[in-house]
Every structure is written in C-alpha cells, then in structure tokens.
Design a protein that fits this description.
This protein is of the alpha/beta class and about 290 residues long. About 30% of the residues lie in helices and about 25% in strands. A hairpin with a 2-residue loop joins strand 2 and strand 3. Bound molecules: 1-O-phosphono-alpha-D-glucopyranose. The site of 1-O-phosphono-alpha-D-glucopyranose has 13 residues, from strand 11 and helix 9. The site of 1-O-phosphono-alpha-D-glucopyranose (G1P) has 13 residues, from strand 11 and helix 9.
C-alpha cells in the first residue's frame, strides 16, 4: 500500500503582472472563469481527487483568497433573508471543513521550488500534491485524480505531461523518457526550460504533481538556476533514482490561464459547458461581429 496523498500545496504568491491592471488589487487566482475564481477550480479538483488538507503559499496582497474560503456571516444572513437559496448553496459548497486550509507566506519571489519549500513544515513527512492554479483542466476525470491512479499503482513521484512544439521547450520543464507506452512515461531525467536543441523530448511537465517529502532535502539547498530562481524541476531531478518517477499524458483539455489567450479560451470553453449559457455563447461565436 502506498502512503495516501492527503495534502496539496497551492503556490499562489505570484504577482500576476501579465494581467495588470486587473491584478493591481486583485490576486490573479481570483480572476473568474465564468463565475468561479480560478483558485476554486484547483481546490475542487484537489478535493475530487481525495485531498483533505489545502496548503496555500501566499504573498502580500493575497488576502482575498483567504476571505474567499472563509465563512461570511453577513453574506449568508443576507442570502437567507432574500431567499436566494441557489446562491447560498453555491457559497456553502466551496467551504472546506474548518481547519482544512492553512496559509503560509513566500516572503520573496524566488521561484516555484522556493514556494513549495515554504510549505515544508505544513507538509511534514508525507507525500503531497502540488497544484499550479493558473492551469485549468476540463476533463471527465479530474487531472489530479488521473495522477493519483498512477500513484496508487506505482508510488513515488508522478506528474502530468503535455506535448509541446520545439519552440515551446523554453517555457516548461522537459522530461527525458526511459519508457513510454503512449500514456504512461517512466522518467529518467528532466531539465527546466531547455533550448529546443537541448530538450530531451517534446514532453513538458504540467502544473500537477505528486511528490515525496524527500524533495525538501534538495529544495532546502536553495540552489538558483534558470532565471536566477530556485526550480522545482532541479530538486525533482536530484530525487530521481531514489523514487520511481512517472509522468502521465493527461486526458482532457488544459488551459494556461496565466496567458490572456488561455484565460479567454478557458472562459469560453467553461461557458459552453454550462447549460444556461451554451446557446447564447454558440450564437455569439458563430458571428461575433454582430453581437449586441
Ligand atoms: C513551472 C515549472 C515548469 C513547468 C511549468 C508548468 O514553470 O517550473 O517545470 O513545466 O510550471 O506550467 P513556470 O510556469 O512557473 O515558469
């Protein structure tokens, strides 16, 4: 039996400069996809994969995230008074049990590896998931659950993989596959943001990971590499050989909501999945110039 994965780390300290001015006073994780903030999609995905403890690595100006996952007496009372029961249900559904969420701060923006390392005391000596909330997945099986199914079989470390074109390798961690059955990939190496000529494959790491706590030993060395940052990929590469490492080509659609194009596409795709919006949106997409 593998040790169960019950904790997930959400690095949400980033400034979101790509979405200024929207993110001047609003955390980018609070930008809505239809009517739910991005962060809520990631939390729901984690919960649906069996996660019970949610660890947020935040930063300055991110308190709206804490308020979002808190109980609001005033709002509840108002909705009850006005008989807005659907709305009441929608905010009740997002509330994790008391004590299930914890927050710590990444005091300096030193990279993803550093953000994950900031959560080490909260994670302690357990396997854990890392969820990058900029990435939104629309799939029948939640993306993290797809990783969990591999973990239950193989243990060790598991992450999601996507295929990229050669010019995109400089944006991702790229893996070196040892075996590849078309869906599951056993990994023998990985490198952060390589030039196309140095990339060991076209398989990129996506923002869903299951990691073993041994990774903190390497993150703790605070080695800065690509972009002067402490990279998670470097510490995972150090852990290779001590743990089985697998990647899984996720099933479903992935939207990079850290880019404006990806964010807009995610809104359209999610809107099309809503019965109450589908027809209106389809009409619009057929002839966007005529929209009123
Ligand atoms: C991070 C990781 C990278 C991974 C990517 C997925 O990069 O460092 O290995 O491929 O997330 O989105 P970032 O997007 O923070 O530059």
């Amino acid at each position: 039996m593998m040790r169960p994965v019950k904790k997930a780390v959400f690095p949400v300290g980033g400034m979101g400069t790509r979405f200024l001015p929207a993110t001047k006073a609003l955390p980018k994780e609070m930008l809505p996809i239809v009517d739910k903030p991005l962060i809520q999609y990631a939390v729901e995905e984690a919960r649906d994969a069996g996660i019970e403890e949610f660890i947020f690595v935040t930063g300055r100006g991110k308190s709206a995230i804490e308020d979002h996952f808190d109980f609001s007496h005033e709002l509840n009372a108002l909705l009850v008074e006005n008989h807005k029961l659907d709305e009441l249900e929608s905010i009740a559904a997002l509330l994790p049990p008391a004590g299930a969420i914890s927050y710590t701060r990444q005091q300096e923006p030193l990279g993803l590896g550093h953000a994950v390392w900031c959560a080490r005391h909260l994670v302690a000596d357990e396997p854990f998931a890392v969820m990058l909330p900029d990435e939104l997945f629309l799939s029948d099986t939640p993306c993290l659950k797809q990783l969990m199914d591999v973990y239950d079989d193989k243990g060790g470390c598991v992450f999601g993989l996507g295929e990229v074109s050669p010019e995109q390798t400089t944006r991702y961690g790229i893996v070196d596959p040892a075996e590849d059955d078309g869906r599951l990939v056993r990994i023998k190496g990985m490198v952060e943001k390589p030039k196309p000529a140095d990339a060991p494959s076209n398989l990129s790491i996506i923002g869903r990971y299951i990691l073993q706590p041994g990774v903190f030993n390497y993150l703790g060395r605070q080695k800065r590499t690509v972009g002067g940052e402490i990279q998670l990929t470097d510490s995972m590469a150090e852990l290779l050989g001590q743990e089985p490492f697998h990647g899984i080509r996720y099933e479903g659609r992935r939207f990079d909501c850290g880019s404006k194009g990806g964010f807009l596409k995610a809104n359209i795709a999610s809107g099309l999945e809503r019965a109450e919006l589908r027809d209106e949106l389809r009409e619009f997409l057929k002839d966007p110039d005529r929209a009123s």
